[in-house]
Amino acid sequence: MSNNPTNKKEALNRGIRSLLGSIDADMKNAAGNLKSEVVTKTTSISKIALDEIVANPRQPRQDFDPKAIEELAQSIRLHDIIQPLTVTKLPSGKYKLIAGERRWRASKIAGITEVPVYIREVNDQQILELALLENLQRENLNAIEIGLSYQRLMDECSMTHEQVATRMGMDRSTVSNYVRMLKLPPDIVVAVRNGSLSMGHARALINVGEVEKQLFVYNTILSKKMSVRQTEELVKQLYRPSKKGTEKERKPQPQFQKIEDQMSSHFGTKIKVEHHQTGKGKIIMEYYSLEELNALLDKMNVSIH
Question: Which of 10, 37, 52, 101 is the catalytic position?
Fold first, then answer.
């Protein structure tokens, strides 16, 4: 991921031009003159009372693992909600949930009275895309804010990692790395968000597979005031992959790359599809905590008795 502000802005501008190119002439004029207050409303975070939010009756997911929700509630008690819910205002004055039902349910259990939300006041998906893209041009965004914007494009606009990358004019791996940062333990996410940990440090930590190991390296960074280069060396020394794992990976065929992207977007984690010429293969799903494992099982409707 390049930290060069000029390159970043050029890539974002290419993404906006790509988006505008897919809209008819009238829409181009309207979107091209999108008012700053629309961008602000669409991308800013508000706080509203939890009891003002109602569930979406059309939510396709109906079964939620009680144990996983309880674990998430405990995390919310300790760290608050890191990723805001997305809601839309109803004529009654209440708010209908668009995304974040697990966080909404867990907040009830945690006894939270107010929650951070994105309020969708426009239904047009292209306006939402453009607002997020324009917001991403701000130079003071931290890595977590960028990752949250990418995640919203995937959640609310039904995009894959590759589609977001195309919109943004950058590599798919760059988008994936930003989104993967959202999976880091809450302590680390908060540190990146408040600037006490750099994006370079966080990028090194996402390559450490287990939460306990991530926290160990994070605490070592703080106690020894380690640079990004020192952190990368520490990760290599402590968690060097096996010889088999260092072999150059074969790039998947386009159709399997698309499957990986769609599954990653659906399950919210890194997915790898290994397909062999014999017709056999395997799907590898990564998770970084027991909570995430439970969430994956929940999405697959797998119940452990």
Answer: 101
